[in-house]
Amino acid sequence: MEYLVGQRWVSHADAQLGLGVVVEIEPRRITLSFPAVGEERTYAIDSAPLTRLRFKIGDHISTVDGVELLVTDIEEHHGLLMYTGTDHHEASVTVSELELDAFVQLTTPQQRLLNGHFDKNEDFALRVATLEHASRLQGSPARGLMGSRTSLLHHQLYIANEVGQRFAPRVLLADEVGLGKTIEAGMIIHQQLLTGRASRVLILVPPSLLHQWLVEMLRRFNLHFSLFDADRLAEMPDGNPFEAEQLVLCSRELFEGRQELQQLALAAGWDLVVIDEAHHLHWSEDAVGEDYRFVESLSACSAGLLLLTATPEQIGQASHFARLRLLDPSRFHDLATFKAEEQQYRALSAMADSLERGKIPAELPADLDPNDPPEELIEQLLDRHGTGRVLFRNTRDAVAGFPQRILHRYPLPQPEPYALAQVDLAERLHPELPYVDDSWLDFDPRVEWLERTLKTLRPAKVLVICAHAATAVALEHHLHMRAGIRSAAFYEGLSIIERDRAAAYFADETGGAQTLVCSEIGSEGRNFQFAHHLILFDLPLNPDLLEQRIGRLDRIGQQQDVEIHVPYLEDSAQETLLDWYDRGLDLFRDSCSAGYMIFQNFRERLLPELEQRTEQFETLLTDSAEFTLRTRDELREGRDRLLERNSCKREVADKLVEEIRSLESGETLEHYLEALCDAFGVDQEFHSEHTLILRPSEHMLTGHFPGVSEEGTTVTFEREKGLSREDMEFITWEHPMIQEAMDMVLSTELGNAALGTLKLKGVPPGTMLLEALYTVNCVAPRALQVERFLPLSPIRLLVDARGKQLADLVPHARLNSLVERVKKPTALAIIKQVHQEVDAKMAIANQQAEARLEEILTAAEQDMRNDLGAELSRLEALRELNPAIREEELEHLRYRIEECAIHIQHANLQLQALRLIITT
């Protein structure tokens, strides 16, 4: 086929792109612009899934100006088609194909059927199933939320749904430790990308968290972020490196003192920017740090912004205000005003507490009706909450579901080599550090204790954490080689694949490692809740790090109490620090979000005691315990409970969980993937219940099937198994394997034309039935989310010899089980004889489908206006009371309503598949 710039072509790979125009031709590639959706696509010339649009005399065409023409003549000039036709005034008009409207449709199934291009009936059934599943997923309220490898936790799903559905969300995620802020951010990113609300995302994190984020985004959400560091930037060609990738992850430190690099990042244009550990940005009323200025500039030129930070009580009110200022500088412009407003929100919280107890507070705002039901009054109070739309914070107390923590202390004699050594504080806490070899293993009593304890706890899984990678490696080697204990090491020096293998070996219930020995950094971000024994080989000098260690097992979903084992050397800094954490802060039994703040408060008194314990230590313990208790009480009393109510509305979260579970229940997805594999020639092997091994075969339909490696890929459909077995792919309806395979079905002609025979009693042989499947084709930019109201909506028709509609009487599944295949020579002989009959039946089917389309479009527009209109009215009324509602959010909503209406009105039918059935 010959391409020329300006020609109009249709992608039969993706009809929703509309009509494309050739804009660039290279020796091996061709680029088309699709004006209807504002996108460009580049294809390989020899395999482009394109069909040249050529109308015939008698066809109706539309121009970009909305002029309708009946084609009366066609000429070709320099490779471009010129159409002459009459408009509704009977005037003759000539237009170039360049002037054609971008909203078009081609009925290729009919062309294939009448030209004898048939597919298997199984492929026809696969196409029907794909369209039905795709349509259901488009309209699902849980769209974008079901594909993550996470537990279905109410607070996470609620936040992801609330934030992920917004246009350019700008929010602060400030959940307490262990509640999964990274997961919430990942779910929001995933939903924004999947629904087309965002396409370019930048994540900035501290250097120590780069690997954790890279792994979490890939492992939990199948998002492939590109890691940018100094080495990668040095290797990249000239130009803006940040424009080379859509999903970019890098450290904030990468930009320190590099104004040119900062300007490149600012110029790249981002739909969503994510800042982790945002409380480390330097800001005060008197001085603003370079890091804060850069993020401030980035937030100003980026549509969406997610800030992840410690809870406000950990970082202080001024620092908290600085984060909110990044989200909306016009709203949060003055610290003193913000502090005054915060006090007002506490009063609203007290009102909500009274309403929950059934008492109507006397100071209820004048615009609220005290006769309304208490639950409605609480909802209205939540809407008035100043930071409720931009700040989300859940607490462990509010979320509940956490296990008990049980501390076991093991005093051990201090060996002479350690006692005699003159060391600094770091080596007092970690006495093995000075040894360049592993000789310390022979005399450190913790090593022998570890061997003995692991054998006693066998076969229970045990997580061992120590501060340094060298310690972890030496311990694991000793356990594996000298003690005969199945173990694996997990530390920052390993590659992503090596870490995943170690974690999978530990997770394996049969034949796996009994223990996993982790370093401090190596254990970050991993979920090992299938184990409940934790051994702390040493202790960190930071309460938040200790909390993070315990948080590897102390997570929602942990089914047993967490047993914390701490061996320590008597009369050492280890014992002193253990006593302070245990008796002073009670950290082993109760999580405390203000741990580091308490440490900072007692730092000057604690550090000398770690060097040499004195009689003052008991006083320190008493003072620390009293201060900690007072701090906990203040946090509980002073917390903005209204905000916590707004951070997880249980009834909304319940519906999301129910929707996801209903989509995962049964074996529908499993059977669908098996049908995909059969169609594309992928071998399947039973692994275990609801788990398969997929391998490429020599007779595959295509050279590659998404997600299946050359060595084979193990997939599971069980969420719990997917969480514990990281060596398996957890397959959901939103997994890239399923999404891309569905695209492969719908972007090709597979299954769109079939022919079969059917034995029916009482029906004369040779009777013809025509089964037609239509979908609604709405060409619209993805960001509008029109498919939420107007999904594919498959329309199935079954027309008999007299033109009667039988689809309701004979369901597709029943018909499919009865139809038999026809040999190709016989099928071709039949087709030659039934051209006119097929055309006649198609005319009937088209007429009936058009009638149904009108009903679907009317209902879709009504649903859209009701849904988005109600949200717009609510936000417009709210903005009078709550300045956190941004004007650009309202403007986008108004724009979206009008644009959605236009695109729904332009929607048409697309014939997806035809099957001719002859009775025998």
UniProtKB/TrEMBL annotation:
Its EC number is 3.6.4.-. The keyword Ubl conjugation does not apply. A motif (DEAH box) lies at residues 276-279. Residues 449-618 form the Helicase C-terminal domain. It is an enzyme of class 3 (hydrolase). CDD domains: DEXDc_RapA (cd18011), SF2_C_SNF (cd18793). GO terms for biological process: regulation of DNA-templated transcription. It holds the Pfam family Helicase_C. ATP binds at residues 175-182. Residues 162-330 form the Helicase ATP-binding domain. One of its GO terms (molecular function) is hydrolase activity, acting on acid anhydrides. InterPro entries: DEXDc_RapA (IPR057342), Helicase_ATP-bd (IPR014001), Helicase_C-like (IPR001650), Helicase_RapA (IPR023949), P-loop_NTPase (IPR027417), RapA_C (IPR022737), SNF2-like_sf (IPR038718), SNF2/RAD54-like_C (IPR049730). PANTHER family: DNA ANNEALING HELICASE AND ENDONUCLEASE ZRANB3 FAMILY MEMBER, SWI_SNF-RELATED MATRIX-ASSOCIATED ACTIN-DEPENDENT REGULATOR OF CHROMATIN SUBFAMILY A-LIKE PROTEIN 1. Interacts with the RNAP. Has a higher affinity for the core RNAP than for the holoenzyme. Its ATPase activity is stimulated by binding to RNAP. This is RNA polymerase-associated protein RapA. The gene is rapA.
